[in-house]
Structures are given as C-alpha cells and as structure tokens.
Amino acid sequence: MTNNLRVYTKALYGFDHVVRSMPGAAWSSPSPCEGWTARDVLGHVIAVQSYVESLARGIEPTLNPYGMPGELVGSDPLRAWAAARESVLEAVDAPGVLDNTMQTFRAEETIDNFLAWNVVDTLAHTWDLARAGDVDDHLDDDLVAHATAQAQPVIEAMRQPPFFSADLIATDDPSPTVQFLAMLGRRTT
Asked: Using one digit for the tens of pLDDT, what is the confidence trace for 100-152?
C-alpha cells in the first residue's frame, strides 16, 4: 500500500463516519456548499469516487458530480455510500493499478497521485456533510496537513466553478483545519 492510498483510505473512512452519524432527517438540510443539501454533498462524493473507480478500471466515467448529485443517493443514503466506498476501494486495490497513468481533470498523472489529490475533496466534503447534519465536524490533523499540501500549489487556478469559491475567506484563527477550510472558501463560524 502506498502512502497516498493509505491517506485516501483514511479520508474515505472519515467521510464514512460522518455519513453513518447523520440523523435521517438531516439529508435534506442545507450544507455549506451553496445550493446543495447534505444529500447533494453525499451524491457528489459518490460521483467523484465513481470517477476514481472508472480511472482505476480504465473505463469512461458515467456519473456527473456536479449536475444533480442528490439524485445519485437514492432512498438509502448509507447503502448508496457503502456500495460506492467498497467499489472504489476494490478498484484501487487491484495489482499495479496505482501505477497506471491516466488523463484526469488536472493533468496526466498516476492513479496514485490522483488519490493524493482526492483527499482534498473528500476532506472538505466531510466537513460540509458534518455541518449539514450538525454532527462532529472535527477533521483529522494528518489529513488536513496532507490536503493543505495538495491544494496550496493549485488553489488559485481552481478558484472557479465547479471547484472552489472565487472568494478567499481570510481568518486570523491559526488552526490548520480553519486555515484549510478558509483556503477552500469555507466559513467555519
């Protein structure tokens, strides 16, 4: 297992913890992602993991993570997430797949490098989902450090739809988590 796969897996299971903690009525609650409910955030993360799975399997991606992501969740959010999580982890666990070079939305890169990047999206949406469900929104310090290191070199280029807000919300709070979320245009207060 590479370090990128280890960190990616840890991020997925952090997201999993929040999904399992969500009160049933919270799936229709608004999230910090403008215009999205908790269901939309989950659908987006499912679609992104489907994209990762498609890259790993060498097939064309089929789900759009930005259209109407809430529709991807169906009637059982926990089941939909568990199926997506297991499917992507199975795909990236195949021998040699992490060394495969693919064209991603960022560049031509290995699956392993793309997993490192995916932690940014997964971690941010872990916080978004937790906030929507009013559950514990604490993010793992090691994941925050990893995601910050991944995002900093490209954040300015990604300050456009559908990625990150054009508005950087400055904060004096020195917390690495608050700084990471602010870099992505999220208000923590």
From this structure: 998 777 788 999 999 999 999 999 999 999 999 999 999 999 999 999 999 88
Entry pTM: 0.92
Task: Read off the tokens for 42.
Answer: 């989950």
Indicate the CATH number of 3-135 among 1.20.120.450, 1.10.287.3510, 3.40.50.300, 2.70.150.10.
1.20.120.450
What is the C-alpha separation between 67 and 63, in angstroms, rounded? 9
Q: Tell me how far apart the alpha carbons of residues 117 and 162 are, in angstroms, rounded to a whole number.
A: 16
121 alpha-carbon distance from chain centroid: 3
Distance CA 79, CA 47 (A): 14
Would you state the structure tokens that stand for residue 5, as one six-digit string? 């796969």
**Could you tell me the two tokens for 185?**
């245009």
Question: What span, in angstroms and rounded, lies between the C-alpha atoms of 28 and 41?
Answer: 10
Is the distance from CB of 116 to CB of 7 less than 8 angstroms? yes
